[in-house]
């Protein structure tokens, strides 16, 4: 199916209001091309010329329509595309264009920014919230960033890098048009080494999406894929993105054989240094509450997933999704508890 909707310049102009690269037309087109969902594309705009609001959706099912946003899953943040003063247009669009569908079915809005108050604006049912930590770089360059951190932090990052340079010949190189495909293959391999052979990002549709989107990004100077090599051997890779004055860390990988050298941390610091030199005001660590993100972040741009419906079928779907989310959270907490207990020292052993 041919991709529809406003042109890339119009689309990206609205995406720039949230400084969110996952709202660009390049990402939406890449996602649609790779996933090819069985459904009808529905791209809503408040007006045909110079729209102030875009809602890129697709619809499945007739008796009980399920409407979702294009890009859900791999995108760390989505939501309607609109300037802050025009966010009310999203609710008006949904009511005027999807009223009949929402009486019989449900819209699932994935990973919309909490700060935009989409739950209240759309009168939606909250399914989950997800932390999305941010490192503040608004104080200026790299030296100013380091000055804003504790003495122990500065000492630690110097020690980590010095230790690697003492024991290895370290190079950190940035992908070019010529090296991109090979570097992505290296990233996927290192990602599987870190997260296991079945890690979703490094196989199947997600890997195909990452490749397609990376090609678009490198053409538009929006990609910073870096590979750390120690004595010529890839040890870590970081897939960074930049858009509208914001840098982000999307995915990474590392060889566990080098974990004692904190190669992932050193490569992330290199990304932060580059973002500061580029004049970025923030570095987004994106979706997830991992401990390293919480230690590094100054603030969080949390996202939420919500359902919107005006009929009994949608209300029932919301209750089921909320119950499923509660069960998933309970299972996760029990696994974490068992993991902590199994790692505790026994009989005084450490």
Total domain units: 2
CATH architecture of the largest domain: 3-Layer(aba) Sandwich
Secondary-structure element string: HHEEEEHEHEEHHEHHEEEHEHEEH
Work out the strand percent.
Answer: 15-25%
- According to CATH, the fold-level topology of the largest domain is Aminopeptidase
Helix content: 40-55%
| Helix/strand class | alpha+beta
Classified by CATH, the class of the largest domain is: Alpha Beta
Rounded to the nearest angstrom, the radius of gyration is: 22 Å
N- to C-terminal separation?
Answer: 60 Å
**Tally of contiguous helical segments:** 11
Shape: elongated
Poorly predicted segments = 339-350
InterPro entries: Acyl_CoA_acyltransferase (IPR016181), BioF2-like_GNAT_dom (IPR038740)
Region (Disordered): 326-350
Domain BioF2-like acetyltransferase: 151-293
Biased composition (Basic and acidic residues): 326-344
What keyword list fits this structure?
single chain; 350 residues; alpha+beta; Aminopeptidase; 2 domains; 7-stranded mixed beta sheet; 11 helices; BioF2-like_GNAT_dom; transferase activity; transferase
Model description:
The chain is of the alpha+beta class and 350 residues long. It folds into two domains: 8-129 and 302-338, Aminopeptidase (3-Layer(aba) Sandwich); 134-284, Gcn5-related N-acetyltransferase (GNAT) (Aminopeptidase, 3-Layer(aba) Sandwich). The chain has helices at residues 8-15, 25-35, 88-104, 118-121, 142-147, 151-167, 180-195, 204-219, 263-277, 291-296, 312-343; strands spanning 40-45, 53-60, 66-69, 81-82, 106-113, 125-130, 133-136, 170-174, 223-230, 233-243, 246-254, 282-284, 299-300, 303-308. The protein starts with 7 loop residues before the first helix and ends in a 7-residue tail after the last helix.
């Amino acid at each position: 199916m041919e991709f529809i909707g406003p042109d890339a310049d119009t689309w990206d102009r609205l995406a720039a209001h949230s400084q969110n690269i996952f709202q660009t037309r390049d990402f939406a087109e890449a996602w649609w091309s790779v996933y090819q969902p069985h459904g009808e594309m529905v791209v809503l705009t408040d007006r045909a010329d110079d729209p102030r609001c875009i809602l890129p959706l697709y619809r499945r099912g007739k008796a009980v329509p399920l409407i979702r946003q294009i890009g859900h899953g791999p995108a760390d943040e989505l939501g309607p595309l609109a300037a802050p003063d025009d966010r009310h247009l999203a609710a008006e669009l949904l009511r005027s264009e999807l009223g009949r569908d929402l009486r019989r079915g449900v819209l699932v809005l994935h990973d919309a920014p909490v700060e935009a108050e989409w739950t209240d604006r759309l009168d939606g049912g909250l399914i989950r919230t997800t932390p999305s930590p941010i490192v503040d770089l608004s104080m200026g360059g790299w030296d100013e960033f380091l000055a804003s951190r504790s003495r122990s932090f500065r000492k630690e990052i110097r020690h980590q890098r010095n230790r690697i340079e003492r024991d290895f010949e370290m190079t950190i190189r940035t992908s070019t048009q010529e090296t991109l495909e090979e570097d992505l293959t290296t990233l996927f391999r290192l990602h599987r080494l870190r997260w296991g052979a079945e890690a979703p990002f490094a196989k199947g549709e997600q890997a195909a999406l990452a490749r397609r989107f990376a090609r678009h990004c490198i053409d538009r100077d929006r990609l910073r894929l870096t590979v750390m090599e120690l004595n010529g051997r890839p040890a870590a890779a970081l897939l960074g993105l930049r858009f509208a004055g914001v840098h982000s860390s999307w995915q990474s990988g590392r060889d566990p054989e080098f974990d004692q050298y904190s190669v992932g941390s050193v490569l992330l610091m290199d990304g932060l240094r580059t973002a500061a030199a580029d004049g970025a005001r923030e570095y987004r660590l994106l979706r997830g509450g991992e401990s390293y993100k919480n230690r590094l972040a100054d603030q969080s741009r949390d996202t939420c997933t919500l359902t919107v419906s005006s009929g009994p079928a949608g209300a029932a779907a919301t209750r089921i999704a909320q119950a499923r989310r509660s069960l998933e959270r309970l299972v996760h907490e029990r696994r974490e508890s068992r993991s902590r207990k199994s790692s505790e020292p026994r009989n005084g052993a450490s």
